[in-house]
Structures are given as structure tokens and as C-alpha cells.
Amino acid sequence: MPAADRLLRLYPRAWRERYGDEFLALAGAGPLGPRQTFDVVCGAIDAWLSGDVRRAAASGRAATNHGGMQMLKSMLACERNAARYTVRDALIAALFLIGVTFLLTRLGQAASASGWPATGGVLTQFGFLVALTLSFPFWIMKGQPWRAQAAIMGTTLVFLAAIGYW
Prior knowledge:
Layout: H1 4-8, H2 13-27, H3 34-49, H4 51-59, H5 68-77, H6 87-113, H7 117-134, H8 146-165
Helix pairs in contact: 2-4, 2-5, 3-4, 3-5, 3-8, 6-7, 7-8
């Protein structure tokens, strides 16, 4: 896994200048675990998309509603292997995954039967991947900033749509 100093480069310059030393002190010298790496990447996405975080870092004061060192401390201070989701969350994600996959597969079959075989094939073949991506907020991205969730999920869905169109 990457070391914290490499992950620090993902953040905007103002954020790095304001919080970089504290970030490195909190993260430690060794490599971060997979969950911590994912959390830091999501925090970087949120820092780039959140005007509040960028303004706070540039002015040298703490961010008021999210981001900054408080967010970083909560990401890095958590137990390395602690899951943030419950059995209930996993069941919701599984039901969502199964339901959306079934729905998209049926829509694909209906589109094929209606004379749209290419659209039907894409819906049928990509149904599971779309459902998996849409289930992220219930499990793998639970607790992440909504901007990071939207960016990662949106990029993934656009990528899948481009592959399907191609």
C-alpha cells in the first residue's frame, strides 16, 4: 500500500500546505492499509470538490463543516480493520444489488424483444456492474463524503456507459 507522503499529493496545494505536516504525523511513516488508503483518496476527492475545505485551507483556519484535520483524524485514527457497516447495511446492499440486477436484466430482455438488441445486450451484460456500483453507498463507501461518493460512482457509471456504447 502507498505511503502517506505519496497520498498527500492527491490533495489541493492549499490543503497540503495547511494540513500536510499534521497529515504525515498522524499517518505515520509506514504504509497505510487498504481501508485507510481508500479513506484518504475519498478525502482528497472531497477536498478538491468542496469549496469550503479549499477556502479554509487557503485562509489557514479549520474547515467549518467537514474536511480538514478533523476529517483526517477520524479517517486515520479508526481501527485499521474496523468495518463501518453493520449486518443490516450488508443485507440492504445485497438486496439492492440483487433487485437492481434483476430489474436491469429484465429491462434488457424487454429491450431485445422490442427490437433494440444492442441496448438489451448492454443492459443485460452490465446490469450487475451498474447494480454493484449503485450499492457502494450502502457498504464500501458508507460514511464517505457525498461528493467523493458522487465522483467515484459517477465516473464508474460514465465509464460503463462508454464501454457499453462502444
